[in-house]
Amino acid sequence: MKALVIGAGGVGSAIANIASRRPFITSMVLADRNLSRAQEAVTKVNDPRFSAEEVDASDVKSIRALIRKAAPDIVVNAVDPRFVMPIFLACEEEKVNYMDMAMSLSKPHPTDPTNKPGIKSGDEQFSRASHWEKSGIYALIGMGVEPGMSDVFARYAEDELFSRIDYLAVMDGSNLTVDGYDFAPSFSIWTTIEECLNPPLIWDEDRGWYTTEPFSELEIFDFPEGIGPVECVNVEHEEVVLIPMKIKAKEVRFKYGLGAQFIETLKTIHSLGMDKKEKVKVGSVEISPRDLLASILPDPATIGDLMHGKTCAGTLVKGLDKAGKPKAVYIYNVVDNAWSMKNYGNQAVVWQTAINPLIAMELVAKGVWNPKGVVGPEWFPAQPFLDLISEYGSSWHIREEDPKGIVA
């Protein structure tokens, strides 16, 4: 498979590192607006299958020109979600397959944002599904860790464990710390702000999709493998759009283990207006406050040596098992930063994200998954994906939870 990966930051460079160990990749072009960053990532893998190019991910013409030059089987979007639509549309116009790990941006409801959804994440992409189907190409969207692996866990739960799903919550948490920083997000601050400060999206079987106040419904969830209790809150996330489209569940939500200090910092960022995307004039220069914040904070791709701890992505499912008895499980994946740095030179969060598009690409290359049009991870059988996780050096587990309160 010939791949073009747009974005040579933390996730993009981790994709290259992991892909260099997989023989199904025949060639990979790693492209970035900063050519030297792409070249550095390619030099690191030291593999003749890999090359670097320059591209402006905000410019459809620039992306189309690179697609024609690289002639890939698939384009993988490894940049911030604000660039989803330019890359998506360029692929549509060039009739080439596409994959991303974060879907098109949402827009809050214009008059009632904390009760009603406006434009949901991914809506722009799904609205163009007929164009992709007619062209005989596919867009596999939301194929990171969350969304992505978490959706695969949800599909597995429905197929193998449950006859009825009452409650499904993707629960993300960690005990990661970064030496020398009180606030150093392990993922793009641009994406973190977008997810955490937007009104959280929730699915209810009777009500449909609705929204709440940011950071609502705080609960303490005990994460496995020594991570321990973490304060989790509702957050807007793509799984809440994708999962109800294919999996029958009475309730679906995403809860992020941010912790009290992280939540307060994000609230301060919002109150100061530093989360705004629109440019403001400072002297003779115009800059987005969010872009300024991103330039001040440490690059998530470079903090691995300073990072300690583990990160956990998982799906909590409650309902009735195949025999009709109350059941609750947490299906999860944990990555230790010390392990990912030692074996790949990538910090835990970006490595945990990067393996998933590659596993999906390998399944497509082998003909096990056959995407058509615009689809998500839960469109396909989960077991082949889960079987490959161990080949990629990671693991997945099922922890039994207390089924108290579930009525048969």
Q: How would you characterize the overall build of this protein?
A:
The strands form four sheets. Strands 7, 9, 10, 11, 12, 13, 17, 18 and 20 form a nine-stranded mixed β-sheet that branches. Strands 3-2-1-4-5-6-19 form a seven-stranded parallel β-sheet, sandwiched between helices. The protein has a two-stranded antiparallel ribbon with strand order 8-16. Helix 3 packs across helix 4. The protein has 14 helices and 20 strands. The protein is an alpha/beta fold and 408 residues long. The chain folds into two domains: 99 residues, NAD(P)-binding Rossmann-like Domain (Rossmann fold), CATH 3.40.50; 197 residues, Dihydrodipicolinate Reductase, domain 2.
Average pLDDT reading: 94
Poorly predicted ranges (pLDDT <50, ≥5 residues)?
none
CATH topology of the largest domain: the name is Dihydrodipicolinate Reductase, domain 2
Structural domain tally: 2
Fold topology:
Layout: E1 2-6, H1 10-19, E2 27-32, H2 35-45, E3 50-54, H3 60-70, E4 74-77, H4 84-94, E5 97-100, H5 123-126, H6 129-135, E6 138-140, H7 149-161, E7 162-174, E8 177-178, H8 189-197, E9 201-204, E10 208-211, E11 219-223, E12 228-234, H9 239-246, E13 251-257, H10 260-271, E14 280-282, E15 285-287, H11 289-296, E16 307-308, E17 310-321, E18 326-336, H12 337-344, H13 348-365, E19 373-375, H14 383-389, E20 397-400
Parallel strand pairs: 1-2, 1-4, 2-3, 4-5, 5-6, 6-19, 7-13
Antiparallel strand pairs: 7-17, 8-16, 9-10, 9-13, 11-12, 12-13, 14-15, 17-18, 18-20
Helix pairs in contact: 1-13, 3-4, 7-9, 13-14
